[in-house]
Each structure stands twice: as structure tokens, then as C-alpha cells.
């Protein structure tokens, strides 16, 4: 059975997100660790966290995915911005241990003119500072569209981040279908080829999660505008191939499509029907 869910609002609390995921027909979900533009997170309600853990066990949930604020930039030119990324990630990861053995996803960042190699070096610095030996969370680098000076739109760049991180057994990849399509990887007409390339460059074992999003733009556009499943340039047939592919079908999938809850429920049902 497909492990699928969608992005939910964390303001309702942990257990309620679990209940909402079930109501939508899913068995996992994604949430922002705090306001997506950054800022202070609420104190962890441990009772609520434990209720979610119980609900997840009882209902056979796949791992849930916490998403870092998307404004974090661990490879900024500005030292204070990098320090903020470090502090936020360190705090998020410490809090994730109240929901042990789940996953935390972040955007590698934008090098803002310093060049890809400098960007990668700075990202590795932050990762080397925030990871620790007996943490239980898997930290995922998200594949990016390559908008502006984003790092992580090429598999080779993600490989270098992994190689530059000491505790890289804690690292995995979250593949965003819209992002890699916009980044030029043709998952619509050459899914096998893209996955072979992923395996050759990064290793397919590193692939831990999928963000399922159609794209408003075309292959290689480097834009990053998500579309509802089947209504964009990737198209429904490609999504059927993706969620049924032997290398992908057991991975947890998270929808980040432009939808209200009823739209998410429809997309979850549709993808489960394949
Ligand atoms: Fe993301
Ligand atoms: Fe994404
Ligand atoms: Zn996106």
C-alpha cells in the first residue's frame, strides 16, 4: 500500500495532525517546524507528542516529515543569516527527538553569488555543527529546481554535500518531483533513466522520501511553481509510473500541491488507486 499524506498545519497540534491525516485517507504527513518564515517555535507539548506516537503505531503510519522554514539559508553570504540557520536547525533537531525516528527536510540554500562550491562548503559546515552521534532523526536534503542561485538542483551537488558531512549516515534525500522536473530531470518521459542517474551519482539507498507535486512550468525551466497532480506539465500518467515504480513504491510520499484539504483527500485517493 502506498504511504502517502500531505502538508498539514502544525498549529492544530501533533495528535490532531495525525487524526487529520487519517481523515484525508493518508498514513503520514508533513508539517513546518515553525512559521515558514522562521521565528520562534512553540514549546513542545510532550503529552501531545506522545499521543501522536501512539496514534501512528496504532494506524501503521509511515515516518512523518518535518520541514525546516524555507527561508533558512545555511550558505548565505551573511554570517548572521548562517548563524540563524544553524540555531534554527539545531533547535528543530533537538525537538524532533520528542518524535523519535522520523525525518527532517531542509532546502540546502542559495549561494547568492559565492559559487556552488563555496555554497556546498558552508552547508557542510552547518551540517557538521548540528548533527550528533546518537540522534534518531534522518535529515533530508531536498532536490531543488535551481531557481536563482539555489544549491542542490544537480545530483552531483547533493553528493558533494553528503561527502563533506562527517556524520553522513544521518543524511538522506527528499526528491521533489516538481523541483527535479523544473531542474531538467525528465521524470515524465525518462523516469528509469533519472533514477539510474540518481543511483549512480548519489546511491538509491539515500532516497528516503518523495514530495509529489505537478509543475506549472516545463522541463528545465528552473522555476519551482507547484501544480495539482495531473494538471501540470508532468501529468497523471507520469505520477502513476512514479508511485508504482519498484524503486519508489515503498517510500513515504508527501503532497505539497496547491489544494485545500478536500483537494488533498482527492489526490490521496487518486494516487492510492494506482
Ligand atoms: Fe521544500
Ligand atoms: Fe518540496
Ligand atoms: Zn517547491
Provide tags for this entry.
two-stranded antiparallel sheet; binds fe (iii) ion; binds zinc ion; 274 residues
Task: Write the topology of this structure.
Layout: E1 4-8, H1 14-23, E2 28-32, H2 46-58, E3 65-67, H3 79-96, E4 103-106, H4 116-130, E5 138-142, H5 155-163, E6 171-176, H6 177-182, H7 191-201, E7 207-212, E8 214-215, E9 226-227, H8 236-244, E10 253-255, H9 261-272
Parallel strand pairs: 1-2, 1-10, 2-3, 3-4, 4-5, 5-6, 6-7, 7-10
Antiparallel strand pairs: 8-9
Helix pairs in contact: 1-2, 3-4, 4-5
Bound molecules: fe (iii) ion (2 copies) and zinc ion (ZN).
Helix/strand structural class: alpha/beta
Bound molecules: fe (iii) ion, zinc ion
Query: Mean of residue pLDDT?
Result: 97
What's the tally of helices? 9
What is the N-to-C order of secondary-structure elements (H for helix, E for strand)? Answer: EHEHEHEHEHEHHEEEHEH
Low-pLDDT segments, ≥5 res: none
Strand residue content: 5-15%
Number of strands: 10
Helix content: 25-40%
Strand order of the largest sheet: 1-2-3-4-5-6-7-10
Tell me the Rg in angstroms.
18 Å
What form results from the Cα inertia axes?
globular
Q: Termini, distance in Å?
A: 10 Å
Largest sheet: 8 strands, parallel, barrel
How would you describe the overall organization of this protein?
By secondary structure, the protein is an alpha/beta fold. Helix content is 38%, strand content 15%. The protein is built from 9 helices and 10 strands. The strands form 2 sheets. Strands 1-2-3-4-5-6-7-10 form an 8-stranded parallel barrel. α3 (79-96) crosses α4. The longest helix has 18 residues, at 79-96. The protein is globular. The mean pLDDT is 97. The structure holds fe (iii) ion (FE) (2 copies) and zinc ion. One fe (iii) ion binds next to loops.
